[in-house]
Amino acid sequence: MIETITYNTFQVLFVVAFAPLYAGVLSRLKEMVQSKRGPSIFQPYWDIWKLFHKDEVVSEETTSIFRVTPYLAFVMPIFVTILIPVLTDYPLAFAFMGDMLAGGFFLGLAGFFAALAAVDTGNPYGPMGASRTRMVGFLAEPVFMIVFFTVSFVAQSTIPYIVQQKWVASVGAFFSPAHILLLIAFLMLILAEGGKIPVDNPSGHFELAMIDESKGLEFSGRGAALMKWGGQMKFLVLTCIFLNVLVAPWGLAHGQFIVDVLAAVPLILFKVFLFTLVLVAIESSLAKLRLFRISEFLGAAFIISVAAMVSSIFPGA
Amino acid sequence: MPTSTPEALNTLGAGLILISAFAMVATRQVQGVVRFFVLQSLLLAASSFLLGYDRNSVHLWTLGGITIAAKVVAIPWVLRRLLPGDFYERREISQAINIPASLLLALLLAVASEFLTGPLVMATRDPVVRVNLPIGLAGVLIGAYSLIARREAIPQLIGILAMENGAFFAGIAIAPELPIIAELAVAMDVILIAVVVGLLTRNIRQTLGTTEAGALSELKEDPLAWR
Amino acid sequence: MALIAILAIPLLAALLCWVRPLRRVAWGITVASAGTVFALGAYVSVEVIASKRVVGAPGWFEADGLSVLMLVLVSFVLALASVFAGGYMRHGEHKGNRLWWFYSNYNLLSFALLAVPSLAEVNLVWVAVELITLFSVLLVGFENTSSALEAAWKFAVLTIMGAPIALFGFFTLFWAYRSATGGSWETWEGLRTAASSMDPNLLKLSFLLVFVGFGAKSGLAPMHTWLPDAHSQAPTPVCAVLSGVKTTVPLYVILRFLSIVLASPAARLGNWMVVLGLISVGIAAFLLLQVRDYKRMFAYSTVEHMGVILTAAGLATQASDFGAVSQMLNHAVTKSLCFYVAGVILLVLSTREIQSVRGLFRISPFAGSMLVLCSLAIAGAPPFPIFLSEFSILSAGMRIGQYTVVAILGTLIVIAFVAIMLHVNGMVFGKPTAPRLTEALPASCRFAVLVAAAPVVLLGVYIPAPVHDLLQLAAQQLGGR
Fold this sequence. Notes:
heterotrimer, B: 227 residues, mainly alpha, 8 helices, globular, C: 481 residues, two-stranded antiparallel ribbon
């Protein structure tokens, strides 16, 4: 019991500590692909540290929502981390407190408050970005739902740990059309929710075109640091769900000793790094979609996920 | 559930073939449609090779080879020769039904094909047939839909060829011992289809100045003009 | 041996037309090959009447009664159409130097049309039907006018779309055959004998798929929309071939499938065929009332007759099978005559509109009288052969008690009759819209029309014994006895 709580804490610390590294490696690799030198991979750490040491400037027109949001954005991904397999492939202490739907709710809560905070300031760019984020969000909802339902239907459970055990049990299950289609649908979903190309340009500075970045526009100092960090943690959490639950349990600790769990850390980091390479390939080869095309992109993701559901429900596949 | 690795990979191929069929409905670029068709044919050939390896069937190996020769190599080459380059740079900006609705219809067709082949799939024990038959029929139906919904000439032709891909994908599961002569003849026929339709498209372009063949609508009956 | 020669000769003729020095005599080559093929077809039919089947190469090329009937029909229409084409194409506005391409294509189409009945391997039949479609597409679009190309495009897309669907049906049939017998080379004979042990669900599914796929090529409603356009825009000799035989050939394949399905006691499809046939006849009859172009009028009447044949086959009695095959024969012969006459009118007046043609009898008595003759024949008036075959179908239906079917079919035929005669009346009588024709019509056209009219007149009153035997044999094949 003590062990599982410790491991759970390890997981949280893992996500909290390595999320900025993930973002840093991603941006560095993207720049390298473009034949530039790129910032150091630890740059996000320096950014967060710098922001923590700056003063906060808060508009008088805002309400308490604006003050609360950064903390929510930081804490919600931590809650989700407790529920998903990050380092181990057996359920930990809090694993049964909530399932994947709960994870979805947590992330949705953070997003909801971020949108409200953006509207709160009265700045024109805030609501614009917030409405676009909500559009992407509600288009992505059905995909989330269908993916969760399919995955849970096949695994007969909604707890991520159980799902992960059932899904990758045999070669046949791994290569079934349902699985592959789900992977593709969820990947498209991550790209949308994480604000990566082709849905949004994460390194753009042009406010009129921002979708996801706009939620952090008005914050400063500690609030900005927490928003940034929270965003990076959210993306790492989504990646962990994708890799550990859906793709494969490679690298996850099987044994119950602390050594195994510690050994899992570099393995999981390596797995995330491989995924980063895939992500860089996708981001560098596609162009950002026009706003109204995002509905087609997410529509395609929806179709793929429904096809996955259909082919897993019907016998024989 | 598939029992051996080639069969498992075949199911993977089936899923990807279905996705490429959706992609053919959703793409706007003419060049993109041709590329997805080539991808679909490659997947079909790969499935054929896998099943041939698994069942030690020379027929399937030759079918895979014929598919690659005809659909991956010959047809794009023939189309390139017959039609000048600017056919391929066209984008179909407006289709009869917009793309998300088209994708939903294609999805409905895929679901319908699972239902339609349900009784047949229940009766058989072969896991490959259980995967290939519904997805083959779905390929045929989605190809037919993309044929109807599109207006440009080349995507319509590719729609026909995609239907053939679907029929063959089902065929490698349910009729693997088709005589080689028949397979060769079908491959030649497919190439001929491309040639004939390509010639026709070129003539239409020369005469009418447009390749939106689907928009031709001069010949019609007028129900109010009796006597 | 003769069967293989029947196929090899048009192929050879097509190749010869490509040879540069021979391009000028392409017409001569075509007529010679078509005539030889007809003679060979007649010879083969005599053999089949004597010995029930003819084998060219066992397993590959075989012919029984039904296929020989088709061979004779096809070769007859092809031969006459090639004669007609000489005068027509020369007279028209075609540049002489493209004609070799037309004749070469024509020969290739002949090859494909003749291959379908002669092939015994079922899967190759699919390929042959596809070749028919492809070559006819090229012929339909021969005159590069915008309406011809539109017709060719619609034709191409709608009929080629049926191909993979039919292919799926063929695969399903192969699956059923293989699970029942384990063999892999299927012939029509083999299928018939194995029919009772094949899974009836698979049989029904494959028949449905082949019906949808090839029904589009036969002009069965609701997949008939390309037919009026294609059959009116193509050059007239091509129209004759298209309407006369090219729609009958896929129907022949469908009827073969039907006989296999009916041989399996568990599958019941006859009623569906009757309903679908009646739908075709109905749609055609009503569309005939509103047609404005006389070639389209003849095309709609093709749809009607295809529907009648399907209904007759669906009734599935010996008498109605005989009616069905004699309808196939009579339709081929009569419809080609109709298109020859239409071609002559087109040559004389250069317009396809019914409204613009008035007083044809005064303009050219030959054309006017022939038009009256052929339209009476195609609409089903006595003493012409189509009346006989339709009457026998109706009486067969009465005999087995299908009164509703007979009533509906009879009414629709009458509606079609009225529509055709209304239009033709307007065209032939009345004040002429053009001065009397001074120059004579091309000799080959007149010759073709007269030769085509001969069987139409003859078969209405007297069916020669060999023809009757052939029809009997074909009906037996159809019914599976």
